[in-house]
What does this fold into?
Amino acid sequence: MSWQGDYLTFHRRIQEQRKALGLAQPKAAAIVGVSERTYRNFENGVGDLDAAKLFKLANELGIKIIISDGVIADGVD
It folds into this structure.
């Protein structure tokens, strides 16, 4: 799988977990400090968030990001 495929999988996983937690898009956007439109574009795979925002979001959603060689990032405090 290419990195693009992995990235789209990540977008879907973020969206699924956000919904499972009952977190609305405006709240998720506020957590990472972006507009709702920017957040919506990110979830739809047509926009990006910087790395710090991705780690913060993953942490809030309880998602661990495996960087490489088995290193796991738990998010940003």
Q: What stands out?
A: Strands lie at 65-66, 72-73. The domain at 3-73 is CATH 1.10.260.40 (434 Repressor (Amino-terminal Domain)). The chain has a mean pLDDT of 85. The chain has four helices and two strands.
